[in-house]
Amino acid sequence: MQILLQLIASGVAVGMIYAAIAFGYQLTFATSKTLNFGQGEALMLGALVGLSLTSWLGYWAMLPLVLLFGFVQGAIVERLGVRPSIKIKSEFGWIMATIALGIIFKNLAEIVWGREALPFPSPLPTDAYVLGGVRILPVELLIVVGALGMMLAVEFFNRKSIWGKAVRATANDRDAAGLMGINTSQIITLSYAVSSMTAALAGVLVAPRITAIDANLGAVLGLKAFAVAIIGGLESGLGVIVGGIILGVAETMTGYYISTGYKDVPGLVLLLLVLMVKPSGLFGKATIKKV
Predict the structure, then answer these.
(1) What distance in Å separates the CA atoms of residue 24 and residue 29, rounded to the nearest whole number?
(2) GO biological process: what's one of them (predicted)?
(3) What integer is the mean pLDDT of 195-217?
(4) Is 129 strand, coil or helix?
């Protein structure tokens, strides 16, 4: 029983990282019905920029700058990769554009930071807390608290601020929002900026747990987060949290009871099952497309 609880605790920490990145997918899909397939690279860049800033400012002081970097990087992706496709009403142009920009960012990261894995110092003690016989690392608590705090902050922004209400109006009906005087192009840019900002924060949260990071950090994490977004539902905040935890716990249990070589399989199996049974996701709502 103790081993099971230990696996669940570790899986929750991993799952919250997936949820934080998947939350970014949800933000852009809500406003523009598009996705940033370079979201994993936003996480990678956030981690590497955070590493460079940590050596200069320290971990806690660099966090606002990493958030600002992620915000700007997301706005650039939207302006260069997504907006042109939306203007010409291309259904698939944004897919290739965001993938291409992700590859470019990865190559730039290799030029700046090299291809070797770099150690990321932990801002917290390495001694684990023991709760009911379960060992929990301080950095795992940081991941859970940081990811939840970030998602709650974005939700508060959407509900209480003028810009947030404009985001919600655009998400509900972009054409109607435009007729009401809302600049929907700016709102979509904002959603991409906030999306990449959440990914950058996820990068500096997960980096101390991974301990060594490189330009390939975001590839697998971004793909798994996309699976989480589909499993939970692209229009459900609760769905990405539940989906992330399910996948994280499934991976840790698979790695322990079967083999670490198969720990990536549960995500693919869950994704296929959800697509067969409930294509809109566990917490998603099926939509009827009018023609």
Answers:
(1) 9
(2) amino acid transport
(3) 90
(4) strand
pLDDT digits (tens, 9 = 90+) for 54-93: 989 999 999 999 999 999 999 999 999 888 888 887 777 8
What token pair was written down for 54? 């940590």
Contact criterion met (CB below 8 Å) for 75 and 193? yes
- Other beta carbons within 10 Å of 79: 14
Question: Does 290 map to a domain?
Answer: no
pLDDT at 101: 93
- Token reading at 196: 């990449």
Q: Has residue 156 been placed in a domain?
A: yes
> Burial, 62: exposed, middle or buried (Cβ in 10 Å; 0-12, 13-18, 19+)?
buried
Tell me the pLDDT band of 291, cut-offs 50, 70 and 90: very low
88: exposed, middle or buried (C-beta count within 10 Å: 0-12, 13-18, 19+)?
exposed
Burial class (CB in 10 A: 0-12, 13-18, 19+), 18: buried
When pLDDT is averaged across residues 25-32 and rounded to a whole number, the result is: 85
In this predicted model, what pLDDT tens digit does every residue of 129-161 receive, in sequence order? 887 778 888 988 999 999 899 888 888 887 888
CATH number at residue 92: 1.10.3470
Q: Is residue 291 part of a domain?
A: no
- Give, in order, the Cα–Cα distances in Å from 13 to each of 20, 62, 75, 265: 11, 22, 29, 19
- Domain residues for 81? 2-277
This prediction's pTM: 0.89
Runs of H (alpha helix) within the chain: 2-32, 39-57, 59-77, 83-87, 93-113, 138-160, 162-172, 174-179, 184-210, 217-232, 237-257, 265-277
pLDDT of residue 287: 55
Domain count, the chain: 1
Nearest partner of 196 among 28, 13, 75, 74, judged by Cα:
74
Confirm whether 189 is domain-assigned. yes
H or E element, residue 119: strand 118-119
Residue tagged 């899986």 (tokens): 11
Cα-only R_g, the chain = 19
